[in-house]
Amino acid sequence: MFATRNEFTEIIEGLTPELVNAEAAVGFAPAIRPKLNAHIHLPPNFTAFGTTEQAVELADAEDVRVLGASNYYDYSIYVDFGARAARRGIFPLFGLEIIALIDDLVASGVKLNDPGNPGKMYICGKGITQFDPMPADAGALLQVIRNNDSKRMEAITVNLARVFADAGVETGLDAAAIKQRVVARHDCPLESVYLQERHVAQAFQEVIFEKIAADDRAALLEKAFGTPSKSPSSDVTVQNEIRSHLLKAGKPAFAPDTFVDFDHAYKLILALGGIPCYPTLADGTSPITPFEGPVSNMIAQLQMRGIPAAEFIPNRNSPEVLSEYVHALRKAGLFVTAGTEHNTRDLIAIEPVCAGDEAIPADVQDIFWEGACVVAAHQFLTLHGRPGFVDAKGAPNPAYATADERIKAFAKVGAALLENYMLAAANRG
Q1: Mean pLDDT on 142-171
Q2: Suppose 237 and one of 116, 231, 307, 385 were both cysteines; which one would form an S-S bond, judging by CB atoms 3.0 to 4.6 Å apart?
């Protein structure tokens, strides 16, 4: 169980595995399926939310009862996230996101879930529990990632400062100054801040808007970008253009990626107690990347790498393609989750929808609910020291003969857990 005591841990401690398993066996579950979102980013990650409380408050306002965070490189915020979620009767799913490079796919030019960079894989961990406190092996693996990423962020900050100085504006920015901006924006500890490209782009955009008069921005940006800005008065547009025109491979402020390999990322997920999960673009990019298309190829690749789950950000996908992929993955013995990320400035709804605000098909929603229940059950059981969906080496729980049997069993436990949790949270007042 977590070292920090709060409302979430008190509820979880009051629910024993024996009780939840017994109720799962008789089908105890919410009468009405709760709304869910298994993937958002919380500050100080780059996000639409100003605070964790804002994210939880908005979820509560939309009646989203299962909310998962998938932050990069620091998880200390999850103690506060868990407590705030519990106060509003929301079950928090703790997760992470890592960027890894797969060398053979880099060499062969195969793109995965980053449509711009061959061999670059975003990979998530679901239901992590070993962060309060963090074991030494996980801490060592994470520190390598933090160090590598920090060096790259420092390099691109230096490069961007040079590009904009050459264009006519001295920004005065370095990595330390950008971190202080994040601290001020989110009122968070400095040690919890690990910069992302979006943080850097936002800081440079803000300084440019502060120092350069509106009538003069278009000329400056065109000089820096080498092409006109599409909307030099839009903060979000300029931030995105800084990334696309200056930070990508071959661009003036590019710094080589320093991401760890797949094995390192995979080991960290397991060391933190999580389930490896592949975030899927599908038709979120056109054409669908070679790794993900056709879906049968993606399934084979995930199974070969020991990844038992996939995730979608449905607002990128058409209902038809989403349905095709989700059903194929589930039929192949992978569980599937869904979220919104909220990793831009756009404060969209918390409950996921498909592209164009089209509804997610009901049968796909059923599979997403099943996946969220699996993660909740894994998180709950491992917090109580019981075997989870996978073990510390990524091997499947041996109590189940097939992947389908294991998914269904954990989903039943998760459904019973969530109903008990929400009742307990309501009774706390």
Answers
A1: 96
A2: 231
Angle of the 136-167 helix axis to the 214-225 helix axis, nearest 10: 110
Query: Which are the contacts of 163, defined by CB distance < 8 A and separation ≥ 6?
Result: 224, 246, 252, 253
Nearest-angstrom CA–CA distance, 160 and 253: 5
CB-based burial label for 213 (10 Å; 0-12, 13-18, 19+): exposed
Helix (H, G, I), strand (E, B) or coil at 8: helix
Q: Give the C-alpha separation, 409 to 21, whole Å.
A: 10
What are the structure tokens assigned to 87, written together? 């106060």
Report how far apart, in Å, the C-alpha atoms of 318 and of each of 285, 313, 335 are.
Answer: 11, 11, 20
Res 397 pLDDT > 90: yes
pLDDT above 70 covers what percent of the chain?
A: 100
Bigger pLDDT: 429 or 278?
A: 278
pTM over 0.85: yes
pLDDT of residue 418: 98
Q: Are strands 275-280 and 91-101 parallel, antiparallel or unpaired?
A: unpaired
69 Rama sector, left if φ>0, alpha if ψ -120 to 50, beta otherwise: beta
Q: What is the pLDDT of residues 369-385, one digit of tens each?
A: 999 999 999 999 999 99
Instruction: Answer whether 279's CB lies under 8 Å from 124's CB.
Output: yes
pLDDT confidence bin for 429, thresholds 50/70/90: low
Nearest-10 crossing angle of helices 17-25, 403-427: 120
- 101 φ, ψ (degrees, to nearest 5): -115, 130
- DSSP letter at 149 equals H
Q: 């790794």: which residue's tokens?
A: 291
DSSP β-bridge partners for residue 337: 311
Measured CA to CA, the distance from residue 117 to residue 361 in angstroms comes to 31
The conformation of residue 410, written as its DSSP 8-state character, comes to H
**Tens digits of residue pLDDT in 328-366:** 999 999 999 999 999 999 999 999 999 999 999 999 999
**CA distances (Å), 173 to each of 21, 158, 159, 161, in order?**
54, 8, 11, 7
- Helix residue spans in 187-213 (DSSP H): 197-211
Would you state the structure tokens that stand for residue 121, as one six-digit string?
A: 């894989």
Is 94 in a helix, a strand, or coil? Answer: strand
